[in-house]
Amino acid sequence: MIITIQVVGKALHNFEDDSFQIIAHDNELNAAVKSSESHKPKIILLDYNFLKNRTSLFIKSLCLVSAESKIIMLGNSLQESQLLECLTAGIYGYLDKKDVVKFFVQAIKAVDSGEAWVSRRIVAKLIESICG
Q: How many domains does the chain have?
């Protein structure tokens, strides 16, 4: 089960396969939190541009109301600092919007099976930020 929050809209339904289905699509922050809390989806797709300056706080809110859900952030060429902020707030993956067609199903399946969907370079930056 997947909830999309202001992502690419109904176009994502084209990517559904037997292993997952999109159960909700929300365009408003409060509705997204309520939807995540009630549906407890396995995956939440979240559009970085939707959140503006509230990214970390919103990710943490989603993690609180739906702790079992894993968040994949979609964005347009996010900077390393933006991505690291999202990772430390609780996302499990990042998919650039230009790569959605190519990697959408792979990213969903990887994150659902417990893997992170980020580049090795970002993993190295995350380790550096932890170790100082």
A: 1
